[in-house]
Structure formats: C-alpha cells, structure tokens
Specification:
Helix content is 69%, strand content 0%. It is mainly alpha-helical and 96 residues long. The longest helix has 19 residues. About 20% of the residues have low confidence.
Length: 96
C-alpha cells in the first residue's frame, strides 16, 4: 500500500508539472514575436519544417539566428519559450 501511494504521488507530481507546461504561454505574443523576429529573414515554412525535427537544438539555433538577426536576449528567450514550452508550437508558425 505504501509503495502504491509513492507511485501515485509521483504520477500526480509529474502530471501537474506536464499540465503546467504551456499554460503560461502568451500565444498572441509568440505569433507576433516569431513573425516580426524570425520570418523577416526566412519563411515560416523553414521554422515549421525544423519543428518537425525532434533532434533540433533550439537553444543553439535561436542563439545563432539571434546573433545573425541582432535580436535582443529577451526576444531570443521569448522565441525559445514559444518553440520549446508550448504544447503545440506549430500553431504559432505553420500554416494549415
């Protein structure tokens, strides 16, 4: 019984943690930031394609693109959050 409660507690903690991911994402801000910061240099299709790559190293990609585009650290952090913490980051970038 005690072991079962421990396992249940772990599931509850991880369930709450995974539920909270994406809850604090401002979708409008994500769309606007990506539109004004990322798609000025390349098309949204490129980002959309990269989002399908599970091996994409977003921190490194955003750092490199941020340096090339002279983006502030705040904008880089916003884009990183939008693309890595949102439940469905494709909705900020990909056309249907």
């Amino acid at each position: 019984m005690r072991g079962m409660l421990a396992v249940l507690s772990i599931f509850v903690v991880f369930g709450i943690a995974s539920w909270s991911i994406g809850q604090d994402i401002d979708e409008a801000a994500c769309q606007q930031t990506i539109k004004t910061s990322c798609t000025t240099c390349h098309k949204a299709d490129r980002i959309c394609h990269e989002l399908g790559d599970t091996d994409a190293d977003w921190p490194e990609i955003i750092k490199e693109m941020g340096e090339k585009g002279k983006l502030s650290q705040e904008i880089q952090d916003t884009v990183l959050t939008c693309l890595t913490k949102a439940e469905d980051p494709k909705k900020f970038v990909c056309t249907k």
